[in-house]
Write a structure and sequence with these properties.
Blueprint lengths: L1 E6 L5 E6 L6 E4 L28 H8 L8 H19 L7 H11 L11 H16 L10 E5 L5 E5 L4 E5 L9 E10 L2 E7 L5 E5 H7 E6 L4
Parallel strand pairs: 4-10
Antiparallel strand pairs: 1-2, 2-3, 4-5, 6-7, 6-10, 7-8, 8-9
Helix pairs in contact: 2-3, 2-4
The protein binds zinc ion.
Length: 225
């Protein structure tokens, strides 16, 4: 998540919290909402990004306490996201990223007084998306490099290296079959790099690296890897 100063409709400068991949303005550090800066159904005008100092009193208050001030919305929502990801890891699957999944995870991880309001869900989702992207881009050292497309939940696509434990989805645009497989091996062989995948406990299948890169995309990475 990016933090950039933005000018609102009245000319006041706030700290904006933005999607680092798409530049979408999610919220302001003072919590005034993105519509202070962006009109509904419109994208953020790049001219609203500014290097001018903050002039919003609330934004100044939360940011001058230091970038890691514990009541800054960036920090508060990051802590919620970390708790949700830790819970999903304990359960052994990727966290759900829709509103209901967040609500249920926060019920389990947060005391009633500490639960965030729904207005903060988009910031929590963005942090989770960043954390899952970072995870998707990391593999064990020594794994042969085979890249596959990974679509970030909140927008933007990156090329991620395939690792053991990854769940890949077959691109079923042409066939209508969107099967999910799990990677069990990535190996260099005399005839090139080969990725072995397993479909829900059935026989393993070996794919040449270039084929798997064009036919599959990465869904998520198993927490146990
Ligand atoms: Zn502000």
């Amino acid at each position: 998540m990016d933090r950039r100063n933005v000018t609102d409709h009245e000319g006041t400068v706030h700290e904006g919290l933005l999607n680092a991949h798409t530049g979408f303005l999610i919220e302001l550090a003072c919590g005034a909402g993105r519509y202070k800066v962006v009109h509904p159904y419109e994208q953020l005008d790049p001219a609203r990004l500014t290097d001018a100092p903050l002039s919003c009193a609330s934004c100044t208050e939360v940011t001058t306490a230091g970038p890691s001030a514990c009541w800054h919305l960036y920090v508060v929502t990051r802590q919620h996201a970390e708790a949700i990801l830790a819970l999903a890891d304990r359960h052994g699957y990727a966290p759900g990223l829709d509103e209901e999944a967040l609500r249920l995870a926060l019920l389990e991880t947060r005391a009633p007084a500490d639960r965030p309001t729904r207005e903060l869900y988009p910031l929590i989702t963005e942090h989770l998306t960043d954390m899952l992207t970072e995870r998707a881009l990391t593999t064990h050292e020594g794994t042969p490099r085979v890249l596959v497309e990974y679509q970030r939940h909140t927008g933007g696509t990156v090329q991620a290296p395939i690792g053991i434990g990854d769940r890949l989805m077959y691109d079923g645009t042409a066939s209508g079959l969107w099967s999910i497989v799990e990677v069990t091996a990535v190996e260099d062989t005399p005839s090139g790099t080969v990725v072995t995948v397993c479909e829900s406990g059935r026989f393993a299948r070996r794919w040449p690296a270039d084929e798997i890169s064009s036919l599959f995309f990465l869904l998520d990475r198993s927490p146990r890897t």
